[in-house]
Amino acid sequence: MKTKKLSKRAVVGIVILMAALLVGIFLIKPVETGVTLPELMRDAVLHEEDRVNFLGIKAVNPALISSFVLTAALLLIAGALRIFVIPKFKYVPGKLQILLEKLVDYFDSLAKTNSPHKNGFLGAYAFAAGVYIFLGTLMELFGIQVIAVSGASVRLPAPLADINGAIALGCLSYCVILSGGVIANGTRGIGRALKEFSLPISMSFRLFGALLSGLLVTELVYSVIFLSFVLPVVVAVLFTLLHALIQTYVLTLLTCVFYGEVTEPPEKKEKKKKKRIAKGDIEAESLGG
Prior knowledge:
By secondary structure, this protein is mostly helical. Helix content is 73%, strand content 4%.
C-alpha cells in the first residue's frame, strides 16, 4: 500500500513539474541580447568578440585562460597527491588509492599493449594527456565566469574547444611519437614518423571538431527559449561527459598505436635472429644425433 501511495505521489509530482515547465515556456518572454544565433555560434568558434585581458598584456581567447587555469589546478593536485597521499599508500588500499592505481594501470597497459617497445615514457604521457583532455572538457560544466574586454561576462570554454589548443596537443603527441621513433630506430624511426605527416592535423581537428560540436549544440539549446528549461542541463552533461570519455580514449589510443608502429624493430633483424635460432637448433639436433 505504501509503495502505491509513493508511486501516485511521484506521478502527481511529475505532472505538476511538467505543467509548471509548460507554463514557463509559454509565459516567459526571451531576453533580447542583441546577438543573433549565428553570431553567437561564430564567436564560440573564433572568439573574436569576447576576448579576455591577460595580465594587462594582451587580449586573448578565453580558452587560453582555461588552459592556464587547468594546468595550474592539475599541478597543484599532482603536488598534493605526491606529498600527502602517495606516501600513505597501504598494502590494503583505500578508495582513493584504488582509483589512482586503476587509472595508472589503465594507461600503462594501454601503452604496453599497443607499443611493446621503448614504452617507458609513453604510459606517463598517455596518462597526462588523458587527464588533461578529460578534466579540460569537464570545465564546461563548472561555468567559470570571467570579465571580457567588452565588459561582458564570459564563460570559460574547454581549453581544447579552441583550434589552437587542439593543434598544440596534436603536435605534442606527434613529437612524442617522433621522439620514440628516433630513440628506438634512429633515422629509420624518423622516416616512419614522417610518413604520417598528416597525423597531427587529423588528431587535432578530430579533437577540436568533437569538442566544438558539443559546445555548439549546448549553445543552440540555450538560445532557443522553448528548449531552455531543464533540457540544457541534460544536453550539457550528456555531451560533455560523452566527449570527455570518447576523446580521451581516442587520442591516447591513437598516440600509443602510432608510437608502437614507429618504435617497432626492423623486420630484417628479426628475420636474421630467427635464422640464427633455426641454425642453432639444427646444429644441436645434428650433434645430438
